[in-house]
Design goal:
This protein is of the alpha+beta class and about 110 residues long. The protein has a single domain, classed as Roll (Nuclear Transport Factor 2, Chain: A). The chain has a 6-stranded mixed β-sheet with strand order 2-1-6-5-4-3, covered by helices on one side. A hairpin with a 5-residue loop joins strand 4 and strand 5.
Length: about 110
Amino acid sequence: MSKTPVEVATAYFEAWHRKDAEGIRPLLAEDVSFVGALGTTAGVDDTLAGLTGLFAMTSSVEVVHRWVDGPDVITWFELTTTDAGPLPIVNWSHVESGAITRIRVTFDPRPLL
């Protein structure tokens, strides 16, 4: 039975908190796309490689609030890195058949540059 969009988004951020890329893998569709302020990825392997790079500099990720509208989940969270933060970030995930197919992220990247 497929997980609901909010269950998938919750599991995604819980795995991120643990820096568990393999825990995120089953939550992503094979053709997942990511577009954010610092880059884009296409496909599960490319997206996981990008996340793994982010894990290396992440001190903490804390979900502030989550909104759900059918298959779309907006998560407002704060990211703290070794050099900056907490940074307010918005993640918009689109979920189909229990897997994230599209991730869009927006934030002010200046503290990281």
